[in-house]
Amino acid sequence: MIIPLVAFAAETTSAKLVVSTSKKLQTGLKEKETVNFVIGYETSAGKGAQATYSASIIQGPGEISVIESPELESKNQYGFEFSSEQSGGICIKIDCDITYKNGGTSKLSKNVWFEVSSSEKPLLSFGAMSDTHVNGVTANARFEKALDNHLRYMPNYDLLALVGDITDSGAVSEYIKVSNILDSKKIDRSKIFVSIGNHEFYESARPTVTAPIANDQDYTSRFVQQFGLSGGKVYYKKEVKGYQFITIGSEFSRVTNKEYEDNLVMSEEQYTWLEQTLSQAAQADPSKPIFLMCHQPLSNTVYGSGYINYERDERLKGILKKYPQIVLYSGHSHRTVEHVNSIYEGDFTMVNTASTFMVYYGSDLISDASQSIFTDVYTDRIVIKGFDHIRNEWVQIRTISLPYEQSQKNTQAPVFSDNGNLNVVENAGILGTITFDYPQSKNELNRFEVFLNGKWYKTENVKFWEEEKKEKAKVLITHFVPGKQNEIKVAAYDIYS
Fold first, then answer.
1. How many Å apart are CA 106 and CA 9, to the nearest integer?
2. For the CA atoms of the chain, what is the radius of gyration?
3. pLDDT tens for each residue of 31-89
4. Are 60 and 88 in contact (CB under 8 A)?
5. Alpha helix locations (H) across 94-170?
6. Is the pTM of this model over 0.85?
7. Using CA atoms, how far apart are residues 409 and 429, in angstroms rounded to an integer?
């Protein structure tokens, strides 16, 4: 589409939803238990705005009943009651339309996650966190808080997996800090299950290091020694309550060969061991899931894995796809668990564990996020829950059936109407902002791919969990050709790409 340059007025009003509940949702509800919600908003526009609310269940069983209350109406608030006679992960979507005195508007939306649990006790419970990057004050404090929450919300845990980049560079001093933190929280070391990450080699791999401080063998040996791995390898297995846990990891890094970059690089010995170990686990009990930990995700699977070198993991994919009972936990990307594809159902289940230190959506840092995974295993299902330790709330809950069956996803792509009403604002020569209407989509939107003058220009991520929903999308362009017509194309992708 070839479009002229026009002007528009910037929006300055900000607003956010405020959600209060009669019971703490972090610990969940029981079947037939009731919880009351009160919804309000905060805005920079001052008093005098009018709001309309709605709430709907978008995942899980249950019923919503609106609370009729003059008191709530007088405060421009909204109340409803939720209860369910069945267990399961629940997501309630809350929407709010605000009209201000000056005629401006805001559209707010928030997803609230929690679990309704039955009297049935899980057969196995474990936590998984990655990319703790223990070294600095912030990383260490967030690691400690994540441990506190795992102990608080899963006190009877059977295992805690640390899925790589546990340290920031693999220095001995950082391993000592990890040990001190685990001891301060009284973590049972026999329940710790560790995977090596690329940062465990970074003491010699950083660009500022002119000569290697140690070699790959030194770093893998250090990892084995610091965590007391009796087998002497970074790959090993562990049986917990009759369930098999397996970890694999890099034995070589960019210290040995710069072309390895931060990819998973395994020896022939490890590949052979993995094939034998998976075969034995499947034969021992084909009905049980096999839990596999690996710091690097497989390419083009869980959210954040699109940049992984697919050529390097084709062999591994070929091995793993033989076993649909595998549940693979990975980190590395630091991408948010809030994205639906952070739990990816393909040939087998894959789970992104995000990071306790720094969490991103696309290339954007989410400053108030620190996330990890809780897992409960039952006879007929696995319940996987993502938790944010700063906001102190669940951000995704998924139930995986046993035996595993891949879920069906909606395949209808987003559709623009009226060519999206695409316009451009010229700010100063090569700089400008394009605006366009949001497309209609059966699923949540994920990203926009922007093309400038016949070439791909940039990816703009849609922060689908954010509260405020605007009428138009805006994307900054910094490479317009002044004095000429510029061709802009935008492609919209949903969360299933």
1. 15
2. 24
3. 999 999 999 999 887 677 889 999 999 999 999 999 999 999 999 999 999 999 999 99
4. yes
5. 137-153
6. yes
7. 44
C-alpha distances in Å from residue 250, one per residue of 72, 165, 199, 312? 57, 12, 11, 12
Pair 421, 437: CB distance under 8 Å: yes
Contacts 24+ apart (CB under 8 A), 95-99: 95/53, 95/54, 95/55, 95/56, 96/17, 96/39, 96/41, 96/51, 96/52, 96/53, 96/54, 97/51, 97/52, 98/15, 98/41, 98/43, 98/49, 98/50, 98/51, 99/49, 99/50, 99/51
Q: What does each C-alpha distance from 164 to 83, 117, 487 come to in angstroms?
A: 39, 31, 44
DSSP 241-286: TTEEEEE---S--TTT-GGGTTS----HHHHHHHHHHHHHHHHH-T
Rounded CA-CA distance 55/71 in Å is 19
* Residue 492: φ, ψ to 5°: -105, 135
Side chain identity at 104, as an amino acid letter? G
Structure tokens at 44: 């920079």
Residues 252/264, Cβ–Cβ less than 8 Å: no
- Nearest Cα neighbor of 373 from 162, 113, 97, 99 is 162
Q: How far is residue 477's CA from residue 457's CA, in Å, rounded to a whole number?
A: 9
Q: In what order do the strands lie in the sheet with 472-477?
A: 5-6, 423-428, 431-437, 472-477
Distance CA 487, CA 455 (A): 10
pLDDT in tens, 435-468: 999 998 888 788 889 999 999 998 888 877 666 6
The span from the CA of 5 to the CA of 165, in Å, is 47
- Gap between the Cα atoms of 380 and 205, Å rounded: 45
- Listed residue (289, 207, 293) closest to 241, CA to CA: 289
Alpha-carbon distance of 495 to 338, in angstroms, equals 11
Judged on CB neighbours under 10 Å (0-12, 13-18, 19+), 13 is middle
Q: How many CB atoms lie within 10 A of CB 274?
A: 20
| Cα 469-473-476 angle, rounded to 5 deg | 135
